[in-house]
Write a structure and sequence with these properties.
The chain is built from 11 helices and 11 strands. The chain is an alpha/beta fold. The protein folds into 2 domains: about 120 residues, ph1033 like fold (Roll), CATH 3.10.590; about 160 residues, no CATH class. A hairpin with a 2-residue loop joins strand 3 and strand 4.
Length: about 325
Amino acid sequence: MSTRILHCSTSVENYNICVEHSIAGFSHRGPQPNDLIYLAVKVGKKTLCGVRFRLEAATDSRPWPDGERYAHALTAKEVEFCKPFDLAVLSEPGGKYWSIKYVQSSKPITDKAACDLLDREFKINKINHFIPFQADTKVGSTPTSPIQVPEQDTDIAEDAPLTRDSIKIQAMLAEIGNQMGYNIWLPKNDRSRVLEIWQSKQNFVLNDLPLNYNIDTLKTIENIDVLWIKGRTIVRAFEIEHTTSIYSGILRMADLMALQPNLNIKAHIVAPVERKGKVMQELSRPAFRYILGQSCTFISYNSVEELAKEKRLKYMSDDVLEEFSEAADLIR
């Protein structure tokens, strides 16, 4: 029996559906019956929790708009509610990188101090009924009106996942690589959503990775957002970071390079231009810079959109990306 945090990203709709249907969905099969789940969603700049429950039995039901993303779903029991509290309190036992330590991938929380803190905060704020989150929910408040999401705010309104900026960029990168003559790899959890935008190109998407690596390496590679592949070689790897923490993409790239230090892959973190500074800061950290070095660079959404408009892509090679990518300053 484990304690986990299930993060619904910025989708208040998915958060509310989890509670209304008493079902939790996960991208992997780690969570098990009787695990204690703290349900969370990002509202504005805060990650808020207002519900906890225990997992019960596995189910085939996937009531969310993007239900195909979830490989594992279980019903919920012993559901409890509280006024929303900010999970940033976990920085107390977990330090600056608490979100990676406790939130990422709904991993089991083995730190007793963190489990005790979650239990304490939940009990302090406990109420006896569920009230759906609003996009403008404030910490410690009890919202009473229906969900209100600005129509054009795709950072919050994930009820139309096919139009999310990150999915659009994923589709653009797939199209650019395909135009240049590369086969494309897309993670299985994202594939259907990307192909809704990148229509009629399904024959160019690989169903299996044509690579001979160990299981750990393949598991890391298959979750990278976009790969350009020639024969049995990965030419370019792209991690797209929009509303999620930029650590996830950088960590995945670092894991890959650590597992295969002789693998000569050019990797890119693709994000909105306003996040460039944060990406560069993280790439410059000692934990990453000695592993990634100059092999991982930043590309902005604007650059991807500009390159996608190029009419002569089929005559170009992947080297054109050097004009659009920026490396972090690794000199101290």
